[in-house]
Fold this sequence. Notes:
The complex is a heterodimer.
Chain A: H1 2-18, H2 35-80
Helix pairs in contact in A: 1-2
Chain B: H1 9-43, H2 46-52, H3 63-77, E1 83-87, E2 96-101, E3 120-123, E4 129-130, H4 137-147, H5 153-177, H6 194-206, H7 209-222, H8 224-227, H9 230-235, H10 239-246, H11 265-276, E5 280-286, E6 294-299, E7 311-315, E8 321-324, H12 330-343, H13 349-378, H14 389-418, H15 426-447, H16 450-475, H17 480-486, H18 489-514, H19 522-526
Helix pairs in contact in B: 1-4, 1-5, 1-13, 1-14, 2-4, 5-7, 6-13, 7-12, 13-14, 14-15, 14-16, 15-16, 16-18, 17-18
Amino acid sequence: MILLALIAAVAALSLLALATDRHRDRLRPHNRRWLRPAGWAMVVAALAAAIVGWGPVYGPIGGIGLLMLAAGANLLVLNLTRR
Amino acid sequence: MGVDRFRGTDMKGFRQSQSTLHTWSGLLLGWILFAVFVAGTAAYWREALNRWTRPELAQIEQPERVVSGAVAYLTKRAPDAQSWFIPVPTTESAGSQVFWQPQVEKGEERRRGRGRRDTQALIGADGQAVTARETRGGDFFYRFHFDLHYMPVFWARWIVGIAAMFMLVAILTGIVTHKKIFRDFFTLRRGKGQRSWLDGHNASAVLALPFHLMITYTGLVTLMAMLMPWAVVANYTDETKLFAAVFPQAPVVERAERVVPLTPIAPLLRDAERELGGPVGYVGVTNPNDAAARITMTRAGTSMLSARTPSIAYDGVTGREVWRAPAPDGATVTQGAMVGLHAGRFGDFGIRWLYFLCGIAGSIMVASGLVLWTVKRRERLPDPARPPFGFRMVERLNIGFVAGFPIAMTLYLWANRLLPLGMERRADGEINAMFVGWGIVFAYALVRQPNRAWVELLGLLAGLLLALPLYNLVALPTGLVATILRGDWVLAGADLTLAGLGAGFAFAAWRVHRFRPKARRRAVREMPVSSNAWAPAE
C-alpha cells in the first residue's frame, strides 16, 4: 500500500509539474487541460493510500513526506533532462 | 501567490521590510542553524550510528534475551543497588546500556559526576556484558543538535532556541520575500549564476516547506518550558507538583531490608506490552532483590507518536500490577505529539528516510541561502578585486561552516575508527578530534583564496566520506560485503549512505572547480532595477 502511495505521489507531482508554464511544452496541447485536476486527484489518492498503509496517525505524516519526495524527484528529473 | 495584485506601494514596502528581515535573520543565525540542522539530520540515524560506531557488537535478534541478561548481570554486579535502569533494545540498537545507582553509605556525601563509568555496563545481543570501544556514537550528534559542546547546556539551549526562533522568522519572511516560489514550484534553471542559486534555495525551501515549518515549530516546543516559562510559573508554584503532573511516577517505597529474589522479567515485559498497547522501551527497578522491589515499565518512544509514553509499575516480588500512569491530559498529549513529530522516533525505515531527506533539503536551504548572500553581492561590488571586509568575512565563514562542519562530523567518525581502543577517555577523544579538525579546516578557510578553498575542502570532505566504507571493508568484520551478505541493512545502509554523500560532495567539488564566472556585463544593467543593494533577490 505504501508503494502504491509512492507511485500515486510521483504521478500526482508529475502531472502538476507538467501543467506549469515551464514544463508544459513537453506535451501536445490537447492533453494539457486535464493535468491539474488529475494531479490533485492523485494527491488525494496518495494521501489516502498512505493513511491505509501507515494508519490514521502516521499516514498523514508519511503521505506528506512522500509528496515532498515526489516533488523533489520531479524537480530534479524535469529540470536536469532539459537541454 | 498573485504578485500582480499587490502593486501598491504598501505591499512593496511590506515586502521590502520582510526581505531585509529575511536576509539578516538568515545570515546572522545561518551558520549556527546550519550546524544544528546538519547534526539533527544525522541524528535521525542515531541508533544506526550507535551500531556503526561499535563494530564489535553482534546484531540483536531477541531483545527479551538482552533484558533478561541485563537483569542477571545486575543481580550479580549490583544486587543491593538503590535502582537499576535498563533500556530495552530493538533489533536495530547497539545493545542495552544499563546503569545502576549504588546505595548511599551513611556519612558519605553524594559527589556529582563521579565515576559514572563504573556504575554502567553494555549488555550485548547474547545477554552478556560486552566491551565495545568507548564512544558516544550517534548519541553525540543528537546531543550536539541542542546542547552544542564545550559549554553549559543552559547557554547552549538558549543559543539553539534563539537560532530556531530566527529560523521560524526566516521561513515565514522567506515565503513573503521569494514571491514566486509557488509559481516557480518546479523551476530550476541551470548555469544562470544568481538565478540558479535562487532557484536552488527556493526549491529546497518550498518543496520541503511542510517539514521546515514543522521541524522549526516543534523544535521550539521541545524547549518551550525554558524559552517561555510563564505559563508554568503562573500555574505551578511547587516544582515537584509540576513534575508529578508532567512525568507521573509510581509512589516511592522504602526499602524493607529483607532479601527476596526478583520475579522473572520476561513475563512482565510481555504483560506490560499488552497493557500499555505497545512494546516496552525502558525498565526501571527500585530496591532490587528486596521485599519492597518495584519494577516500572515505560512504553517505547518508537511505538507511538507522542514522546510522553505511559508507564506501569509492578510489585517486584509477586509481579502484580501496583500502579499505572493516569491518562495524560490534552496539553501533555499535544506537547508530546509535537516532540514526537520532531524526533521522528516512531518512524519505520520509510518514514525515517523521508525525515532524513527533508533534513538534507533543509541543510541545503540554509547553505544555499548563506552562499546566495555573497553571490548576489559579488555582482555589485564596486571593485571585485578588493571586496570590503564584511563581504570577505561572510565568504570565508560560509566555507568554514558549510564545508567545515560536515568535515568535522566525518572526522568524528574517522576518530571512532582510528583512535587506539584502550585510550584513556576515548569518547571525549573522538569529540576533541572532531573540533580540533574543524578548527584547522576553519583556519585554512580563513586564509586560503575562497574559490580554491571551496574546491579543496569539498574535495577533502568527499574523500573522507568515500574512504570510510573502504576502511570498513578492509579493516573490520563489518565491511559492506559482509553486512550485505548477512542482510544487515542498517550497517550496510550506513556505509552506502556515507558513500552516497561522498559522491554528492565530490560532484559539488567538481562543479565548483569547473565554474568560471561570466564577465560582469549584467551588473551595470541591473543596478537601476533594485536600488537597495542589501535586499535579496526575489
